[in-house]
Amino acid sequence: MLTLFIVLVVSQGKTTFMNIEFASERRNRLWSHRNFDFVKFNAEVFMQTFPSDNKYIAAIDACYINKSGKKTEDLGWYYNGSGGASQRGLAISIISITDLKSNTAYAMDAQQTIDEEGRSRIELYAHHTVKLVSTPLDLGIK
């Protein structure tokens, strides 16, 4: 993963498995199917990068993504705060670590909001939060 991150940071333009030159396309695709704990990785990078004397909290935010077309999976009607109305598109919930001193949030995890039968969106966001609550708590973040 470290090699992949380095390639993504230094490469210019659109990066795909076909034009990454450090390994074959087949190897890149096989590696992409391995599990990697991005939440823990993002939290650890955050804690090693930012001062420990600042106050941090975990936060969640639902974000609207404008999408058009008829072939995008899981299109739905979501509230767009910028437009002030529900619009057709995609939505994600982002759990972030927020630095209260600099008033800045750093994303720890994002999950697409996909409507499920019998569950409200609030329940989906709550499930996302409960699933990840241990990571910020282990780092001393409320």
Could you explain how this protein is built, in words?
- This protein is of the alpha+beta class and 142 residues long.
- It has a domain at 53-138.
- The protein has five helices and four strands.
- A hairpin with a 4-residue loop joins strand 2 (76-80) and strand 3.
- The longest helix is centred in the N-terminal third of the chain and has 12 residues, at 38-49.
- The radius of gyration is 18 Å and the shape is globular.
Provide tags for this entry:
32% helix, globular, alpha+beta, single chain, 142 residues, 5 helices, four-stranded antiparallel beta sheet
Compact description:
Strands 1, 2, 3 and 4 form a 4-stranded antiparallel sheet that branches.
- Estimated share of beta-strand residues: 25-35%
**Largest sheet, described in full?**
4 strands, antiparallel
Number of helices: 5
Q: What is the residue-averaged pLDDT? A: 84
Strand segment count: 4
Q: Return Rg in Å.
A: 18 Å
Question: Would you tell me the structural class of the helices and strands?
Answer: alpha+beta
H/E element sequence: HHHEEEEHH
Runs in which pLDDT lies below 50 for 5 or more consecutive residues are none
Ends: how far apart? 29 Å
Helix fraction?
25-40%
Principal-axes shape call: globular
